[in-house]
User: Fold these one by one.
Assistant:
Number 1:
Amino acid sequence: MAYDYDLFVIGAGSGGVRASRIAATHGASVAVAEEYRYGGTCVIRGCVPKKLFVYASHFSEDFKDAESFGWTVGDVSFDWAKLVANKDREIDRLNGIYINLLEGAGVRRYDGRARLKDAHTIEIAGETVSAEHILLATGGAPTMPDVPGIEHAISSNEAFHLESLPEHITIVGGGYIAVEFAGIFNGLGRKVTQLYRSEQILRGFDWDVRHHLAGEIRNKGIDLRTETNVTAIEKTADGYRLSLTTGETLDTGLIMFATGRHPNSSDMGLETVGVELAENGAVKVDEWSQSNIPNIYAVGDLSDRIALTPVALMEGHAFADTVFGGNPRKPNHTDVPAAVFSQPSVGTVGLTEEQARAEIGEVDMYKSTFTPMKHTLTPSEEKTLMKLIVDAKTDRVVGCHVVGPDAAEMVQGIGIALRCNATKAQFDATVGIHPSAAEELVTMRTKWTPPEAQAAE
């Protein structure tokens, strides 16, 4: 049977655009459908605008620190509307770049929501086309809990377009989005309360990272309350009144929920075609990103493997090489570096201590907590944490975790070392860059002993 396209991609985010471009360079006829803007969550309403907001929020501390380095800073003020406008201009530019990349590769664009009619037929805004292969790459969306008054709350999507910032902002959640926005709003001079239902923020991260960051967040003035959740939201004359699981109430000018995201798989015709979905709506795929329907694949957050932009890029590229490039390869989800642009930031790669002890058994720990050189002159009490986890039997470094300035920049390089199975001896043999915080990663020599073990010695 002749099809209109060799490949039809639904969703023009990171994974969808990469797969479209690479498949086209392999000679495939490709089309992509996007109902909103090109670039996906990361570029439009995720990591890119959020990182710009993080940069903006850092200036409040920089102005304070400048005096310790001999600078006299005069009166300063902040214009939220100007920041939002400048951010929007940059997002517009990136949206245009993604469109140009697709058009330059010869990919046909369809603007509108795409739905599957059958395993090879797609409908977009009343137009029907066919494709031999279909790639689903529609990403994820914020999950809002079923709480009375939830219509008064916003998600991270709306946070990028607020007309103004109230004096008191409450954020519900303990994941990276919640932590990052708490730091942003706090740095922009707002009073911030962060509520999290469990015992500690950043579930799934190394315990030392979670504990250390929570302390730093509180030291910066954020009212972080763990084991606390919202049971109801009431509109008041001045804002909102929150009923809490502790029995207290909390008045706030804005409430934002960052309580997780879910795969964006609804209203796409997947059930009609028979694409198998997980309980949370994720498209179930095998190690080749293939669904139970042989010609339909899924990548990125929709497949709910690792919800990171570079992972979606990797999955989309591997799919295109496999199906159209004559180079079968699986995306590798091992030792994927990640960052949280909290304040201070977090960089992590490999196993947490908890995972290492469960999977490996005998492990050696190397930990260091110190004042960054910048703050030896400032009044700041911020501390940097660095931690290496080593397989005691093979000496291989299996985990690295950093909390402090430029953590992501450091851990990107360490991610290469872990992929190369570097040993602690090789870390030790590497000459450090002085003076830098990163040199601590190659100069930690003393194994960390738990306090209870020290007491028994």
Number 2:
Amino acid sequence: MTLTLTPLAGIPLIKKGDDLTQFILQSLESMQIELIEGDVLILAQKIVSKAEGRMVNLTEVSPSNQALKLAEKTEKDARVVELILQESQMVLRTRPGLIVVEHNLGFVCANAGIDHSNVGSPGEDPKEWALLLPEDPDVSAQVLRAGLESDSGVRLGVLIIDSHGRSWRMGTVGITIGISGLPGLVDLRGKVDLFGYTLQVSEVGAADELAAAASLLMGQAAEGSPVVHARGFPYPLREAKLSELIRPEDQDLFR
């Protein structure tokens, strides 16, 4: 089994309204990569959000009283806190510099996934811009997959990924926030291991494993490779949604 990950070259700085599908196809053609059945395209959340116009100028944000109080407690910009509250179902934990929330999309993350790095245009103050997550990353992935499959004529998978921290380990890793065409979770219960033991509880977050691998190639600062082509994903493709990767609240010991 071989898994090959290739960062796509030539993806430009993305602006609102840009056609990501065409940029990906052009890059694949220039790199002489012909899509085959089972290939997966992994995209950084940031370029999807930019193409969908999810940039917000903070000068246009008016903080609520709740945001002002939480901003004072966390030592954060009240305008950013207002956006965090708008993008969240619930605030779970806070400390200076950090607000952990249950995002409107259902998962737990820091600061509602709102980003400042590599957001503003050249010459603009990056501190005055914020980038929100896509409104529905599953739908974004479905649209991208449909365009790529229509052009290639083969069955593909698409992941949209972001960098998240974890409550029990240091450091951020790439995780899936949008998925189409490949399994998020692979259930190995009932399978037999090398020694004949029948697995009882093993479930693999396959999409997150692929997201983490792709994130290594994308980078976390300059982020010059926002799309990665993967070949050799070791599980059969199928329809899926992000929801299968989110631990139900009644099973979440950290909420």
Number 3:
Amino acid sequence: MQAWGAGFALGFSLILAIGAQNAFVLRQGLRREHVLPVVLVCAISDAVLIVAGVTGFGALAEAVPGLERVMRYGGATFLIWYGARNLWAAWRGGAILEASAGAGSLRRAVLTCLALTWLNPHVYLDTVVLLGSISAQYADKLAFGTGAVMASFVFFFSLGFGARGLAPLFRRPESWRVLDLLVGLTMWAIAATLLTG
């Protein structure tokens, strides 16, 4: 039980920081667009990466020269593009939350979610490398990994479906502009740390 609790606590604390993936889940939750598929894609992707890290896949990053660099620059490029999109939306303004607003396509939502998850090098560092290396300290690595996976599911479902409580705030265009501005700047800040780190 100690290993499970440690895995849950560490997994939850790593995923709590706002980033591209979390901002996207929040946006989908606020708009009530494809929330279940989006949170499932995030949680299942995290589960795959956590299991890979706990079962020793982290050694691949050390064994393949240049893999970390490719992941870092590819992720930074994607985050710069995604941040620019949000900054453009903030500058343009005019977005409001309407219950009757037409939903974007499920395919687009899932593909964006997959890109924000799998093209983000921080995801690999947190799930595969960090959780994988810390799990080695525990005799029951399975319990540790299960706790971390459970934390991911709890977090994404809470964020996606809990965002509905913020819906009244996001009926105002200014709220969307602030959210888009914060998301865009956050994406660029993460990209900058990837490029300089």
Number 4:
Amino acid sequence: MADEKDHKHPDGENPSETGVAAAVDGADPEEQDKVEFVEPPQFDVQHVGACAYEVKVSIPPANEAKESEKMFGELQQEAEVPGFRPGRAPRKLLERKFAKAVKGEVALKLINAAFERLVTEQEFDPLDVPDIDGVEDLKDRGDGVPIDVTFKFEVAPRVQLCEYKGVEVERPVVTVDEADVDEHLEEVRERHAIYEAVEGAKAEEGDQAVIDFEGKVDGEPFVGGSGSDYPYILGTQRFFPEFEEALKGAAAGDTVTCTVTLPATMRDESLHNKPAEFSITVKEVRRRQKPELDDAFAKSAGFESVEEMRNNIREQLQERSRSASQSTLEENITTKLIAGSTFEIPESMIENSAKSIIQEQGERLYQTLEEELSEEEASKQLHEKAREMATEDIQRLTVLNEIVRQEKIEVTEDDFMKEAEQMSSQLRLDSSVVTSFLTSEGQRNTTANRIARRKALALLAEHATITDKEIERDGSAKEGA
């Protein structure tokens, strides 16, 4: 509908400043705003682009006369006019005082009602309030002249779906074997590894050397140039490259030296770019040691035995594999439906979505562009790539929304409860807190739409003709498959 904040009042004034809004007090807003047309508005609907419409509207003057009479009647009952008790002000006085404001408010009210009627009659789903051309011209309109304006707006994306039941599609399947379980167990052991001193070991990449060090410039120690019992891990490059190079091959008890050019980032400007001599004493060499794979380790990780730990890991990997296979299956189905369907998508929606993608993923996408591009060419390619991604995202949502509509998929309170239980388990939050959030006024529709689309995906998978295809964990085809 027309928005009073976004469009000027037909008479060029703010209604609240004219006194009409203040004069009528206590009236039921819904009843006050309700419009029943004496003569229906006439619509000339023109499709001017992808989901874009221009509609010329002509509202017969009989409607304005009726609504003006109604508004003046309300004013006469409620208006507070100096010198008169409420409800006693003469009609002629009210007409002189409020004529211009009433005319403007009535026009705006009828324009809003006409747009509501248009949307209902044409079954439009507008993306936003319309732009309205011709409002300024209404100021000079004489009595008995129709209200003529033009609505300009875009509607939600539309799709002409191909046959969506019985889609032939492949489902990638990864079989979890004992080698996968072993690999995951090693990763768990690696995460629990600790540094332990190794007698006689010579420091190498990945080792932790416990050191004392002192640096001097022109034979004098300087602030920040010394430390004791510092646990330095080789390979982290936390200190100077020369410093780390000197440590390689050193054992506990060794003292090594190196010369470093101090950087211009030192706090003491007198040290900038000065050569510094470092003396480094290695007190201990520690190496990462993974825990033994035994029941004691399993218990420290929350299991009764190694076997129970293996079983748990196997179940987790199998569940991840099933979930990944199902997600890829659903993506493959919707990709086929997109390829076989015809879309109409508003240009503004594609552009707005592309801008969001660039803001969120621009740096990552930039890395995928061709090399040696000019700034202008790179920007153009980035924009084109974002538009492609935006279009595909919108197409997927539109396909699923249309299936929800055609299949009359509904979201129940039980669905909300299940969603809350799943999210509370993942986030480790109380389910009542999650339920309250998901069903809140600002979140309920978003949650319902997400659940409905998930139901649509389940329906598609249920009716699809699926061929399972064995693949390796890296996504490559399995030999012999």
